[in-house]
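Entry:
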Amino acid sequence: MELLFSYGTLRSKQIQMQIFNKVLSGTPDQILGYKLKSLQIEEEFGMADYVVAIPSENLTENIHGVAFEISNTDLLKVDQFESNSYKRVQVKLKSGRTAWIYTENK
């Protein structure tokens, strides 16, 4: 099993059903030393506003979200769902666990 930290769209039960055909269960957690940045992504019907996690110079900044345990297969489904504007990296959560997050793809 893998741990996926979601701070945005992937917390939506509707999106989870679309990607995994099930609703995930998770636990609240945080990533420290990151902040959210606005991001516009071109979609089928125009531009859409999202947020992306980026490292912060202020190590006390944090992002609240949910840590989900998912299979490797489900993690690959998320890779396909996320646009090229994001990349997957591992981070240490406030709880001490290591999780994957999607951050800005530069």
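The chain has one domain: 2-104.
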